[in-house]
Amino acid sequence: MGFMDKIRGELIDIVEWVDDSRHTIAWRFPRFHNQIKYGAQLIVRPGQSAIFVREGRITDVFGPGQYRLETKNLPILSTLEGWKYGFDSPFKAEVYFISTRQIPDLKWGTPNPVMMRDADFGPIRLRAFGTYTLKATEPRALLQELVGADSSFEVDEISELLRSIINHTFAELLGSADIAALDLAENYKELSEQLRLQVVEKIDDEYGLQIPQLYIVNISLPPEVEKALDARTGMAVVGDMAQYQQYQLGAAIPSAAENPAGGLAAAGVGLGMGMAYAGNMAPGVVGNGGGTSGPSAAPGTVAPAGPPPPPPQAIPTEWHVVENGQPVGPFSPAQLAEAVVNGRVGPATLVWAVGMATWVAAQQVSSVALLFSQVPPPMPRQDG
Asked: What pLDDT digit, counting tens, does each position of 99-128 carry?
């Protein structure tokens, strides 16, 4: 401290802290050789406490208000100084101001996933994050355990310790709560309060701190578990998957028919939809060999109930054709459609796919026969 600071300190007789920060917990009043005038004014604003320290001992603590520093207001310090009848010269003491207001918007979160055993998913990993507020309630304990001889003490200097305590306590709470992962969201309020109380038990007496508010904002599942839950939810919304597929196929076939010249891709899609539609919507009526199955009913009569239809067959993805007396293939649905357009495969061409008992003419397979209706007729002859 320079000469002017020394002179200024001798002239100024007001001890105060104008706190313009938001995250300072403690601040030491600067004074040359820690000398304070006898009779100086001490101003402690709302949300503050002032602590006098003499020779390493905490002597007097002041709450909000304005005080004249004299014998009657400094009983312990007066005893140490030996003031019996008053004293006009400066006395030596350190003055620490402690912020006792709430410090908001502090954040916590699990740096690593917390393992728990869930009844639905088995062992899973969970992450969590939230917010909390901090407040100094015991200035003496705070000064002794954390501040020491520092000229100032910021929240950042203790935030790492507080986050570690919160994360450790959260892991213990989650393991003992016995709440299913899918039910955690509806218990955020109760879990937040239990977590706050357990954390306060660990810091109030030791550090003189209080956590008035603590909130769990989110507890998240691993991405792979979230995807599985989304898939399960989608299946539950759809309901009967077979009926849903039939509806999609039935709705898509007219759209494909409206664009017969849509190219090979559209032809391949039409082939797949036709086969699925034929297999799902009318099982047992048209087989791979082109014949009909099941008993026929006379006009005007009701056919007797028969056994339930067989499950729909899988759509073939590879086709073989007979070309020049030799089997050729495999062809994808799009390649088969291209062969039909190019005239390489005709209605009488023998075709076969996995699941068919034998080779049959292409026109006898209902799904393949759809392709021939999309081939334009030959151009009429033009007389010269």
From this structure: 999 999 899 999 998 988 888 888 888 999
Runs of H (alpha helix) within 28-132 = 75-81
Per the listing, tokens 């140490």 go with 80
DSSP per-residue codes, 156-219: HHHHHHHHHHHHHHHHHHHHHH---GGGSGGGHHHHHHHHHHHHHHHHHHHH-EE---EEEEEE
Are both 89 and 112 inside the same structural domain?
Answer: no
The rounded mean pLDDT for the chain is 76
Of 263, 124, 252, the closest CA to residue 184 belongs to: 124
191: left (phi over 0), alpha (psi -120 to 50) or beta: alpha
Specify the pTM. 0.56
Candidates 79, 96, 92; CA nearest to 44 is 96
What's the domain range around 274? 241-283+315-372
The conformation of residue 4, written as its DSSP 8-state character, comes to H
Give backbone dihedrals phi and psi of 239, rounded to 5 degrees, phi first.
85, -115
At 298, the amino acid letter reads A
**85 with 124, same domain?**
no
SS3 state of residue 313? coil
Phi-psi region of 255 (alpha: psi -120 to 50; beta: other; left: phi over 0): alpha
pLDDT digits (tens, 9 = 90+) for 334-347: 888 888 888 888 88
Instruction: Compute CA distances 143 → 46, 139, 140, 244, whole Å.
Output: 19, 6, 5, 70
Q: Which two tokens stand for residue 237?
A: 């919304």
Report the amino acid identity of residue 268: G
Query: Hey, what amino acid is at 198?
Result: Q
Distance CA 74, CA 230 (A): 68
Provide the number of structural domains found in the chain.
3
Domain end: 82, 99, 116, which one? 99
Q: Rounded CA gap, 277 and 312, in Å? A: 9
